Amino acid sequence: MLKKFVISMSAIVVIGLGIIAVKIPGGLTGSWVMISAVTGLNTAQASSDMAASNFELADGFSVNLFAGELDGPRFMLVSESQDIIVSFTKIGQIAVLRDLDSDGIADSTEVLISDLNDPQGLAFDGDWLYFSERDKVSKVRFDHKTGALIGTPETVIADLPFGHPHRSHNAKALGISPNRKLHINVGSPCNICEPEDPRYSAMLRAELDGTDMVIFASGLRNSIGFDWAPWSGELFATVNARDMLGDDFPPDELNLITEGGFYGWPYYHGDNVPDPEFGDQRPDLLDSAITPAFKFNPHNAPLGIHFLNHTDTLPEQFNRSALVALHGSWNRSSLDGYKVIALQWNDQGEIHSRDFMTGFLSPQGVIGRPVDIAENRSGDLYISDDLAGRIYRVSYQRK
Protein backbone atom coordinates (compact mmCIF):
# COMPACT_ATOMS: atom_id res chain seq x y z
CA MET A 1 0.00 0.00 0.00
CA LEU A 2 1.31 3.45 -0.93
CA LYS A 3 0.88 6.56 1.14
CA LYS A 4 0.65 10.01 -0.48
CA PHE A 5 2.64 13.10 0.53
CA VAL A 6 2.75 16.56 -1.04
CA ILE A 7 5.96 18.55 -1.49
CA SER A 8 5.96 22.01 -3.07
CA MET A 9 7.90 22.38 -6.32
CA SER A 10 9.08 25.35 -8.34
CA ALA A 11 8.92 25.80 -12.10
CA ILE A 12 10.05 22.58 -13.78
CA VAL A 13 9.44 21.39 -17.32
CA VAL A 14 9.13 17.98 -18.93
CA ILE A 15 12.04 16.05 -20.37
CA GLY A 16 11.60 13.22 -22.83
CA LEU A 17 12.53 12.08 -26.33
CA GLY A 18 13.89 15.03 -28.22
CA ILE A 19 13.98 17.23 -25.14
CA ILE A 20 17.19 19.11 -24.48
CA ALA A 21 18.17 20.29 -20.99
CA VAL A 22 19.77 23.75 -21.04
CA LYS A 23 21.45 24.76 -17.80
CA ILE A 24 21.43 28.35 -16.67
CA PRO A 25 24.79 28.95 -14.94
CA GLY A 26 24.85 29.48 -11.23
CA GLY A 27 27.30 27.19 -9.43
CA LEU A 28 25.65 24.59 -7.24
CA THR A 29 22.34 26.40 -7.44
CA GLY A 30 20.71 27.13 -10.74
CA SER A 31 17.82 26.30 -12.99
CA TRP A 32 17.17 24.24 -16.10
CA VAL A 33 15.36 25.08 -19.30
CA MET A 34 14.10 22.15 -21.38
CA ILE A 35 13.88 22.80 -25.12
CA SER A 36 12.17 20.36 -27.48
CA ALA A 37 14.34 19.38 -30.41
CA VAL A 38 11.83 16.85 -31.79
CA THR A 39 8.11 17.51 -31.55
CA GLY A 40 5.19 15.12 -31.37
CA LEU A 41 7.02 12.37 -29.48
CA ASN A 42 6.07 13.19 -25.91
CA THR A 43 2.79 12.18 -24.36
CA ALA A 44 3.45 14.30 -21.27
CA GLN A 45 2.98 18.03 -21.62
CA ALA A 46 5.50 20.61 -20.46
CA SER A 47 4.69 22.17 -17.13
CA SER A 48 6.53 25.41 -16.55
CA ASP A 49 4.55 26.35 -13.45
CA MET A 50 4.24 23.09 -11.51
CA ALA A 51 2.75 23.87 -8.11
CA ALA A 52 3.25 20.57 -6.33
CA SER A 53 4.51 17.02 -6.66
CA ASN A 54 2.31 14.33 -5.20
CA PHE A 55 4.65 11.59 -4.04
CA GLU A 56 3.33 8.20 -3.04
CA LEU A 57 5.53 6.06 -0.80
CA ALA A 58 5.39 2.55 0.55
CA ASP A 59 3.21 2.29 3.63
CA GLY A 60 4.86 3.64 6.78
CA PHE A 61 7.38 5.89 5.02
CA SER A 62 7.36 9.68 4.95
CA VAL A 63 9.36 12.15 2.87
CA ASN A 64 10.68 15.66 3.30
CA LEU A 65 12.84 17.93 1.19
CA PHE A 66 16.39 17.63 2.49
CA ALA A 67 17.95 20.10 0.02
CA GLY A 68 16.72 22.04 -3.00
CA GLU A 69 17.93 24.45 -5.68
CA LEU A 70 20.88 22.18 -6.44
CA ASP A 71 22.43 21.96 -9.89
CA GLY A 72 21.92 18.36 -10.94
CA PRO A 73 22.82 16.26 -7.86
CA ARG A 74 23.85 12.75 -8.89
CA PHE A 75 25.55 10.16 -6.66
CA MET A 76 25.83 10.34 -2.88
CA LEU A 77 27.71 9.06 0.15
CA VAL A 78 26.96 9.38 3.85
CA SER A 79 29.91 10.26 6.09
CA GLU A 80 30.51 9.02 9.63
CA SER A 81 29.01 12.31 10.86
CA GLN A 82 25.92 11.74 8.68
CA ASP A 83 26.88 14.47 6.21
CA ILE A 84 25.86 13.85 2.60
CA ILE A 85 28.62 13.93 -0.01
CA VAL A 86 27.22 14.61 -3.51
CA SER A 87 28.67 14.60 -7.00
CA PHE A 88 27.44 17.21 -9.49
CA THR A 89 28.44 15.73 -12.82
CA LYS A 90 27.42 18.50 -15.22
CA ILE A 91 29.03 21.36 -13.30
CA GLY A 92 32.13 19.39 -12.27
CA GLN A 93 31.85 19.62 -8.49
CA ILE A 94 31.71 17.50 -5.36
CA ALA A 95 30.06 19.05 -2.31
CA VAL A 96 29.11 18.23 1.26
CA LEU A 97 25.62 18.93 2.63
CA ARG A 98 25.36 19.17 6.42
CA ASP A 99 22.32 18.93 8.69
CA LEU A 100 23.81 20.68 11.70
CA ASP A 101 20.67 20.74 13.85
CA SER A 102 19.50 17.20 12.98
CA ASP A 103 16.08 18.32 11.76
CA GLY A 104 16.27 16.39 8.49
CA ILE A 105 17.01 19.47 6.38
CA ALA A 106 20.43 20.51 5.09
CA ASP A 107 21.71 23.69 6.72
CA SER A 108 24.80 24.20 4.59
CA THR A 109 26.25 23.21 1.23
CA GLU A 110 30.00 23.51 0.80
CA VAL A 111 31.94 22.73 -2.36
CA LEU A 112 34.77 20.30 -1.62
CA ILE A 113 36.29 20.02 -5.11
CA SER A 114 35.55 21.89 -8.34
CA ASP A 115 36.73 22.04 -11.96
CA LEU A 116 36.33 18.29 -12.39
CA ASN A 117 35.54 16.40 -15.61
CA ASP A 118 32.21 14.58 -15.22
CA PRO A 119 32.60 13.55 -11.55
CA GLN A 120 30.15 10.85 -10.54
CA GLY A 121 31.29 7.84 -8.53
CA LEU A 122 32.01 8.25 -4.81
CA ALA A 123 33.29 5.78 -2.22
CA PHE A 124 34.80 5.86 1.26
CA ASP A 125 37.64 3.71 2.54
CA GLY A 126 38.08 4.93 6.11
CA ASP A 127 39.06 8.58 5.89
CA TRP A 128 39.90 8.36 2.19
CA LEU A 129 37.28 9.74 -0.18
CA TYR A 130 37.56 8.15 -3.62
CA PHE A 131 35.92 9.84 -6.62
CA SER A 132 35.81 9.25 -10.35
CA GLU A 133 36.02 11.55 -13.33
CA ARG A 134 35.55 10.61 -16.96
CA ASP A 135 39.25 9.79 -17.37
CA LYS A 136 40.53 8.88 -13.92
CA VAL A 137 39.98 7.90 -10.30
CA SER A 138 41.41 9.96 -7.44
CA LYS A 139 41.40 9.97 -3.67
CA VAL A 140 41.70 12.63 -0.97
CA ARG A 141 41.62 12.53 2.81
CA PHE A 142 38.33 13.53 4.38
CA ASP A 143 37.74 14.71 7.95
CA HIS A 144 34.47 13.03 8.94
CA LYS A 145 34.07 15.28 11.96
CA THR A 146 34.34 18.63 10.20
CA GLY A 147 33.20 17.62 6.74
CA ALA A 148 36.33 19.13 5.19
CA LEU A 149 39.13 17.78 3.06
CA ILE A 150 42.67 17.26 4.31
CA GLY A 151 45.30 17.95 1.69
CA THR A 152 44.77 17.74 -2.05
CA PRO A 153 43.52 14.92 -4.28
CA GLU A 154 45.96 12.40 -5.72
CA THR A 155 45.37 10.33 -8.84
CA VAL A 156 44.94 6.61 -8.28
CA ILE A 157 44.07 5.48 -11.82
CA ALA A 158 44.77 7.61 -14.89
CA ASP A 159 43.93 7.38 -18.59
CA LEU A 160 40.55 5.71 -18.37
CA PRO A 161 38.87 5.67 -21.80
CA PHE A 162 36.02 8.02 -22.59
CA GLY A 163 34.12 9.05 -25.69
CA HIS A 164 33.16 12.43 -27.08
CA PRO A 165 33.14 14.95 -24.20
CA HIS A 166 29.48 15.82 -24.79
CA ARG A 167 28.10 12.43 -25.80
CA SER A 168 28.21 8.75 -24.88
CA HIS A 169 28.60 7.37 -21.35
CA ASN A 170 31.59 9.15 -19.89
CA ALA A 171 30.73 9.41 -16.19
CA LYS A 172 32.21 6.50 -14.27
CA ALA A 173 30.46 4.59 -11.48
CA LEU A 174 32.70 3.66 -8.57
CA GLY A 175 32.55 1.29 -5.62
CA ILE A 176 34.73 -0.49 -3.07
CA SER A 177 33.95 -4.15 -2.46
CA PRO A 178 33.72 -5.79 0.98
CA ASN A 179 37.25 -7.17 0.41
CA ARG A 180 38.48 -3.62 -0.37
CA LYS A 181 38.92 -3.72 -4.13
CA LEU A 182 38.13 -0.79 -6.39
CA HIS A 183 35.43 -1.40 -9.00
CA ILE A 184 34.95 1.07 -11.85
CA ASN A 185 32.31 1.03 -14.57
CA VAL A 186 33.38 2.20 -18.03
CA GLY A 187 30.33 2.73 -20.21
CA SER A 188 30.18 2.23 -23.95
CA PRO A 189 31.27 5.15 -26.17
CA CYS A 190 28.14 4.75 -28.32
CA ASN A 191 24.58 3.47 -28.45
CA ILE A 192 25.65 0.31 -30.28
CA CYS A 193 29.12 -0.46 -31.69
CA GLU A 194 32.19 -2.67 -31.24
CA PRO A 195 34.68 -0.53 -29.29
CA GLU A 196 38.36 -1.12 -30.02
CA ASP A 197 39.40 -0.56 -26.41
CA PRO A 198 38.25 -3.63 -24.41
CA ARG A 199 37.90 -1.50 -21.28
CA TYR A 200 34.75 0.05 -22.72
CA SER A 201 31.40 -1.50 -21.72
CA ALA A 202 33.18 -3.26 -18.86
CA MET A 203 33.63 -3.26 -15.12
CA LEU A 204 37.23 -2.86 -14.05
CA ARG A 205 38.76 -3.97 -10.76
CA ALA A 206 41.94 -2.75 -9.11
CA GLU A 207 43.70 -2.52 -5.78
CA LEU A 208 42.95 0.60 -3.74
CA ASP A 209 46.23 2.12 -4.90
CA GLY A 210 45.20 1.57 -8.53
CA THR A 211 47.57 -1.30 -9.26
CA ASP A 212 46.69 -4.67 -10.79
CA MET A 213 43.77 -3.31 -12.76
CA VAL A 214 41.89 -5.97 -14.74
CA ILE A 215 38.66 -6.26 -16.72
CA PHE A 216 36.44 -7.90 -14.12
CA ALA A 217 33.35 -8.29 -16.36
CA SER A 218 32.47 -7.26 -19.92
CA GLY A 219 29.52 -6.84 -22.27
CA LEU A 220 27.90 -4.26 -19.96
CA ARG A 221 26.68 -1.31 -22.01
CA ASN A 222 26.57 1.06 -19.06
CA SER A 223 26.39 -0.16 -15.46
CA ILE A 224 25.74 3.19 -13.83
CA GLY A 225 24.88 1.72 -10.42
CA PHE A 226 26.16 -1.30 -8.52
CA ASP A 227 26.19 -2.59 -4.96
CA TRP A 228 26.97 -5.72 -2.96
CA ALA A 229 24.20 -7.76 -1.32
CA PRO A 230 24.94 -7.73 2.44
CA TRP A 231 23.65 -11.28 2.99
CA SER A 232 25.80 -12.91 0.29
CA GLY A 233 28.49 -10.47 -0.84
CA GLU A 234 27.26 -10.86 -4.43
CA LEU A 235 27.69 -7.89 -6.75
CA PHE A 236 24.64 -6.65 -8.67
CA ALA A 237 24.71 -3.90 -11.29
CA THR A 238 22.05 -2.01 -13.19
CA VAL A 239 22.48 -1.69 -16.97
CA ASN A 240 20.98 0.79 -19.40
CA ALA A 241 20.34 -1.19 -22.58
CA ARG A 242 20.63 0.15 -26.12
CA ASP A 243 18.25 2.66 -27.71
CA MET A 244 16.41 3.01 -31.02
CA LEU A 245 14.74 -0.41 -31.21
CA GLY A 246 11.25 0.78 -30.33
CA ASP A 247 9.32 1.22 -27.10
CA ASP A 248 9.41 -2.35 -25.90
CA PHE A 249 12.90 -3.68 -26.59
CA PRO A 250 15.42 -4.27 -25.21
CA PRO A 251 14.77 -4.46 -21.46
CA ASP A 252 17.08 -2.66 -19.10
CA GLU A 253 18.87 -5.09 -16.83
CA LEU A 254 20.01 -6.00 -13.36
CA ASN A 255 22.98 -8.33 -13.63
CA LEU A 256 24.68 -10.56 -11.09
CA ILE A 257 28.30 -9.68 -11.84
CA THR A 258 30.80 -12.52 -11.69
CA GLU A 259 34.51 -12.36 -12.37
CA GLY A 260 35.18 -12.99 -16.04
CA GLY A 261 31.49 -12.82 -16.90
CA PHE A 262 30.29 -11.61 -20.33
CA TYR A 263 26.84 -9.99 -20.44
CA GLY A 264 26.04 -9.79 -24.12
CA TRP A 265 26.42 -6.21 -25.34
CA PRO A 266 26.61 -5.32 -28.21
CA TYR A 267 25.63 -8.68 -29.68
CA TYR A 268 22.79 -9.87 -27.43
CA HIS A 269 20.15 -8.22 -25.26
CA GLY A 270 17.84 -9.42 -22.50
CA ASP A 271 17.45 -13.19 -22.71
CA ASN A 272 20.20 -13.26 -25.37
CA VAL A 273 18.06 -11.94 -28.21
CA PRO A 274 20.43 -11.08 -31.09
CA ASP A 275 20.96 -7.41 -31.86
CA PRO A 276 19.63 -6.56 -35.36
CA GLU A 277 22.93 -4.89 -36.30
CA PHE A 278 25.55 -6.94 -34.45
CA GLY A 279 23.80 -10.16 -33.48
CA ASP A 280 25.37 -12.17 -36.29
CA GLN A 281 28.92 -10.95 -35.65
CA ARG A 282 29.82 -13.22 -32.73
CA PRO A 283 27.69 -16.38 -32.61
CA ASP A 284 30.54 -17.98 -30.66
CA LEU A 285 29.65 -15.78 -27.66
CA LEU A 286 26.00 -16.78 -27.41
CA ASP A 287 26.50 -19.76 -25.11
CA SER A 288 28.69 -17.79 -22.72
CA ALA A 289 26.57 -14.63 -22.53
CA ILE A 290 24.99 -14.28 -19.07
CA THR A 291 21.32 -13.30 -19.02
CA PRO A 292 19.90 -10.74 -16.55
CA ALA A 293 19.07 -11.61 -12.96
CA PHE A 294 16.10 -9.24 -13.36
CA LYS A 295 14.66 -7.31 -16.29
CA PHE A 296 13.39 -3.76 -15.90
CA ASN A 297 10.93 -2.29 -18.36
CA PRO A 298 12.64 -1.12 -21.57
CA HIS A 299 14.16 2.35 -21.43
CA ASN A 300 13.38 2.92 -17.74
CA ALA A 301 17.06 3.83 -17.23
CA PRO A 302 17.88 2.20 -13.87
CA LEU A 303 20.70 4.16 -12.23
CA GLY A 304 21.62 3.92 -8.55
CA ILE A 305 21.03 0.71 -6.61
CA HIS A 306 21.35 0.46 -2.84
CA PHE A 307 20.90 -2.62 -0.66
CA LEU A 308 19.09 -1.72 2.56
CA ASN A 309 21.22 -2.12 5.69
CA HIS A 310 18.69 -1.52 8.46
CA THR A 311 15.91 -3.95 7.57
CA ASP A 312 15.45 -5.04 11.20
CA THR A 313 13.37 -1.88 11.72
CA LEU A 314 11.35 -2.31 8.51
CA PRO A 315 8.42 -4.52 7.52
CA GLU A 316 9.27 -8.07 6.49
CA GLN A 317 8.91 -7.35 2.77
CA PHE A 318 12.06 -5.22 2.95
CA ASN A 319 14.29 -8.08 4.12
CA ARG A 320 16.92 -8.88 1.49
CA SER A 321 15.94 -5.81 -0.49
CA ALA A 322 17.49 -3.10 -2.62
CA LEU A 323 16.12 0.20 -3.87
CA VAL A 324 16.70 1.18 -7.50
CA ALA A 325 16.26 4.66 -8.98
CA LEU A 326 14.56 4.56 -12.39
CA HIS A 327 15.67 7.77 -14.07
CA GLY A 328 12.95 7.51 -16.72
CA SER A 329 12.58 7.02 -20.45
CA TRP A 330 13.64 9.84 -22.73
CA ASN A 331 13.26 7.53 -25.75
CA ARG A 332 9.75 6.08 -25.62
CA SER A 333 6.59 7.38 -27.31
CA SER A 334 4.89 7.02 -23.90
CA LEU A 335 7.01 7.91 -20.88
CA ASP A 336 7.81 5.25 -18.28
CA GLY A 337 9.97 4.87 -15.20
CA TYR A 338 10.54 8.03 -13.16
CA LYS A 339 10.27 6.35 -9.77
CA VAL A 340 12.12 4.39 -7.11
CA ILE A 341 11.32 0.69 -6.84
CA ALA A 342 12.11 -1.94 -4.22
CA LEU A 343 13.57 -5.28 -5.32
CA GLN A 344 13.30 -8.24 -2.94
CA TRP A 345 15.23 -11.51 -3.13
CA ASN A 346 13.40 -14.59 -1.87
CA ASP A 347 15.07 -17.72 -0.45
CA GLN A 348 15.37 -19.19 -3.95
CA GLY A 349 17.15 -16.10 -5.24
CA GLU A 350 14.16 -14.94 -7.28
CA ILE A 351 13.71 -11.18 -7.49
CA HIS A 352 10.35 -9.42 -7.20
CA SER A 353 9.69 -5.69 -7.54
CA ARG A 354 7.22 -3.20 -6.11
CA ASP A 355 6.91 0.56 -6.25
CA PHE A 356 8.61 2.39 -3.38
CA MET A 357 8.35 6.09 -4.33
CA THR A 358 6.29 7.36 -7.26
CA GLY A 359 5.09 10.77 -8.42
CA PHE A 360 8.09 12.03 -10.39
CA LEU A 361 5.92 11.47 -13.48
CA SER A 362 2.67 13.35 -13.02
CA PRO A 363 -0.36 13.93 -15.28
CA GLN A 364 1.06 17.40 -15.97
CA GLY A 365 4.50 16.16 -16.99
CA VAL A 366 7.84 15.00 -15.66
CA ILE A 367 8.74 16.89 -12.50
CA GLY A 368 11.77 14.88 -11.40
CA ARG A 369 14.24 12.14 -12.32
CA PRO A 370 15.63 10.06 -9.42
CA VAL A 371 19.30 9.13 -9.66
CA ASP A 372 20.74 7.56 -6.51
CA ILE A 373 19.88 6.30 -3.03
CA ALA A 374 22.02 6.59 0.11
CA GLU A 375 21.31 5.46 3.67
CA ASN A 376 22.51 6.79 7.01
CA ARG A 377 23.13 4.76 10.15
CA SER A 378 19.60 5.46 11.41
CA GLY A 379 18.11 3.96 8.28
CA ASP A 380 17.03 7.29 6.78
CA LEU A 381 17.19 7.24 2.98
CA TYR A 382 18.33 10.03 0.68
CA ILE A 383 17.17 10.16 -2.94
CA SER A 384 18.76 12.53 -5.43
CA ASP A 385 16.84 14.12 -8.30
CA ASP A 386 19.00 15.71 -10.98
CA LEU A 387 16.13 17.30 -12.92
CA ALA A 388 14.41 19.13 -10.06
CA GLY A 389 17.76 19.77 -8.32
CA ARG A 390 16.64 18.22 -5.06
CA ILE A 391 17.59 15.61 -2.49
CA TYR A 392 14.74 14.01 -0.58
CA ARG A 393 14.93 12.36 2.83
CA VAL A 394 12.70 9.32 3.34
CA SER A 395 12.13 7.89 6.82
CA TYR A 396 10.20 4.95 8.21
CA GLN A 397 7.86 5.58 11.10
CA ARG A 398 8.17 2.62 13.47
CA LYS A 399 4.86 1.24 14.69
What is the secondary structure topology, with strand pairs?
Elements: E1 2-8, E2 19-24, E3 31-36, E4 52-58, E5 61-67, E6 76-78, E7 84-88, E8 93-98, E9 108-113, E10 122-125, E11 128-132, E12 137-143, E13 148-157, E14 174-176, E15 182-186, E16 202-206, E17 214-218, E18 226-228, E19 235-239, E20 253-257, E21 261-262, E22 268-269, E23 273-274, E24 294-295, E25 302-307, E26 321-326, E27 339-345, E28 351-358, E29 361-362, E30 365-366, E31 370-375, E32 381-385, E33 390-396
Parallel strand pairs: 17-21
Antiparallel strand pairs: 1-4, 2-3, 4-28, 5-33, 6-7, 7-8, 8-9, 10-11, 11-12, 12-13, 14-15, 15-16, 16-17, 18-19, 19-20, 20-24, 22-23, 25-26, 26-27, 27-28, 29-30, 31-32, 32-33
Describe this structure in words.
This protein is mainly beta and 399 residues long. The protein has a single domain (2-396), classed as 6 Propeller (Neuraminidase), CATH 2.120.10. It is 0% helix and 42% strand. The protein contains no helices and 33 strands. It has strands spanning 2-8, 19-24, 31-36, 52-58, 61-67, 76-78, 84-88, 93-98, 108-113, 122-125, 128-132, 137-143, 148-157, 174-176, 182-186, 202-206, 214-218, 226-228, 235-239, 253-257, 261-262, 268-269, 273-274, 294-295, 302-307, 321-326, 339-345, 351-358, 361-362, 365-366, 370-375, 381-385, 390-396. The strands form 9 sheets. Strands 1-4-28-27-26-25 form a 6-stranded antiparallel sheet, with no helix packed on it. A 5-stranded mixed sheet has the order 14-15-16-17-21, with no helix packed on it. Strand 16 and strand 17 form a beta hairpin. The protein is globular. The two termini are 16 Å apart.
